[in-house]
Amino acid sequence: MATQPGIAMTMDKDAMVSVITCFYTEEAFLEETIQSVLQQTYTHWEMILVDDGSTDTSTEIAQRYAHAYPGKIIYLQHEGHANKGVCKSRNFGIANARGTYIAYLDADDVWLPDKLLNQIRIFEENPQATVLLEASEYWYSWQDTARKNIVIDIGTSPGKVYTPPELLMQLYPLAKGAAPCPSGMMVKRSVHDHIHFAEEFTGDNAVYEDQAFLAQLYLTQKIFVSSQWNNRYRQRQASQVYNVHQQGRYHRVRQYYLEWFRRYLNDHAIHDADIESLLRKALLPYHYPLYYSIFYTLPAKVRSKAKRVVRKLLNRMP
User: Fold this and answer.
1) What share of the chain is helix, strand, coil (3-state, %, to 5)?
2) Same domain, 119 and 214
3) CATH number at residue 39
4) What is the spatial distance between Cα 71 and Cα 78, in angstroms, rounded to a whole number?
5) Same domain, residue pair 227 and 299
6) Strands 73-77 and 45-51: what pairing?
7) How many folded domains does the chain comprise?
8) pLDDT in tens, 27-84
9) Contact present, 54 and 25 (Cβ < 8 Å)
10) What is the C-alpha separation between 8 and 161, in angstroms, rounded?
11) What SS3 class is residue 283?
12) What residues are paired with 49 via a beta bridge?
């Protein structure tokens, strides 16, 4: 994305961004991720690298950069070099952050050079917003140069601030609109005074950890949705998301999230008829699979078969 001339001169130089990157055994990608932060045109940032018990050379890579950029790149690890999962690691990093803003960068993704500059500008132009979401480039060409990358816009109208709970009603996983990727997000530090990553999302269920965090934002925060994209979301077969889908465990993970969200609404005394209606519909295939099959899945299959029969009959007509 191009940067508008003169933007840097209007920036609040005291607005530090804390970049939170958690990693577990990411030696193939971590250095490229760190370099994409070092190349940012907005330079008032700190990068907090949280080692989630890595067993490869990514620990040494992170420590080397922390040594080379003292006070700028910070290396953290859990006690005993333990593996505690991405949510506890993110919360650990946030607890040690000094910035006015918090941005998240997954350890296999990268940012374009103007990512922070563009997002700080948007916050300054929309001071009522506490959260910023942007589109993402789904990055395939890193591995196969013949394959085109795809920019996925967030599934709602961009360029405006949404109030709670509008985005919950429009975006995945309760609705059809495409959800944002963590590496495209930025929030004001005050958001984390009351909202944290849900640490019960571990193992396969960590596939939905970002959705659990986003649900809390949708319910409480004013959120600016940008059409810009300044992040590349690496697509690879070794990812947890890919494996959960390929090995047929996705619906188990989705049900876990939906049940968690139902408990969250109850625990926080949130009663909204529209949200509850969407949630009941989302849970139908898990709570009432026969009903769901008859009233949702089966009619679609019947319609498809009917169309094929009609086409055959038409083709036989003289």
Assistant:
1) 45, 20, 35
2) yes
3) 3.90.550.10
4) 19
5) no
6) parallel
7) 2
8) 999 999 999 999 999 999 999 999 999 999 999 999 999 999 999 999 999 999 999 9
9) yes
10) 23
11) helix
12) 21, 75
